[in-house]
Known about the structure:
By secondary structure, the protein is α/β, with parallel strands linked by helices. The protein is built from 16 helices and 20 strands. The strands form 4 sheets. It has a 7-stranded mixed β-sheet with strand order 9-8-11-10-12-13-14, sandwiched between helices. Strands 15, 16, 17, 18, 19 and 20 form a 6-stranded parallel β-sheet that branches. A 5-stranded parallel β-sheet has the order 2-1-5-6-7, with helices on both faces.
Amino acid sequence: MFDHLLNPRSIAIIGASSDEKKIGNVVVKNLIYFNYSGRIYPVNPKSEKIYGLKTYPSIEDINDEIDLAIITLSAPLVPDAVEACVKKNVKYVIVIAGGFSETGEKGAELEREILQKINGTNTRIIGPNTVGIYVPRSNVSTALTLPERTALPGDGKIAFISQSGALGLLTMDTISEYGTGISAFINLGNRIDLSENELLKYFENDEKTGSIVLYIENFKDGREFYKVAKETILKKPIVVLKSGRTSEGAKAASLHTGALSSNDAITDGVLRQAGIIRAYSETELMDYGKVLAYQRPLFGDRIAIITTAGGLGVITADYLVSENNGVGMKLANLSEETKKKIKENIVPFGSAENPIDLTADGSTEQYSRVLEILNYDQNVDGIIVYALFQTAKVDETLIDVLEKYMKGKPMVVGILGSKIGKRMILEAERRGIPAFPSMERTVKAIKVLYMRGKYLKGRNKYGK
């Protein structure tokens, strides 16, 4: 359905330019930089070559089928360019320019004109007012950012749909630091044609995608979104960062993409009924997307904690259990047999009570033994492991241990520290282990697994 968009065989850039300050130049440069292997066709009647690529006076002069066209022209020139794409039978058209409905009636009229051009045709529009797409596995980037200034993530399991282009690019730049990857990024912009609802249907069945995250300022068709999401959620978890929660935020959203925000209490209820996890920051959006993509749902809320730093265990227990300043889960009541076995496998001055403290004298082998013991305790639903590589007896093979027990009870890992810690998070990411650099983010992540499990359990129980 969206293969011509996300894995195009040929791309035309209408408004391509040799001027490095122009958008038409950045798009061509990015396609080359990311080693896009398909055919690139710059369109500019005033140039012969751009970066060694032959240019064409118009898209209709290209003797090839075009899967994807990227229009980098100013808003008033876009309708005619779209018409040329329709005549060429282009499958998808990305309209980069702003200056449409987000600016007022004159811009809205341009959008209506574009829609008239594609009405009854096979051509679909992404945008306008968009940075387009970024698909690591296809080496496709239309992002309006310079590679030497901005990092983009590698291939991963999170599908990222965003109404804002800049927020999407900044978020991807940030998650790249810890190696989190994405399956695709699509910036919807003003969504005059293609919307989040169709993309949800696609990613529901995309085997490369483990979770779907969205930044949304308003829903194009709220009823349809609810209907589609409620079906998609059974196969793929969905996380939404919805802005415009306040009157001030709603006003800002309308100026940004022309969005009209709905009552936030209604939005919150709809998301909850559909089983969608709500995030309140870009960090939560990607953390939740990551843990849901990498780990199975958690069907109970009794959590065991393993650490080599007692203070971490105590603070985590508070945050885990507290209803007011935490996530309102339970500290697992370990069986006597479990505590006896743990005591036999850790140092004498360690604690076999939950949270389990291996102390600074704890070793990689002790982590492994305790994880095995906990996986047999029926009183434990999930596990938080603080993998602290700063101590002498914990070596990098602890990552191998964690990878092994990813097949056991649902587990979330906290890896703190800026030196070896960051390197180990990158390695955990490479192996599909959900690891986070703070206590708060680690605990929130395991709560999200429980929220998904609880919802799925309810759907199954009531046949909804």
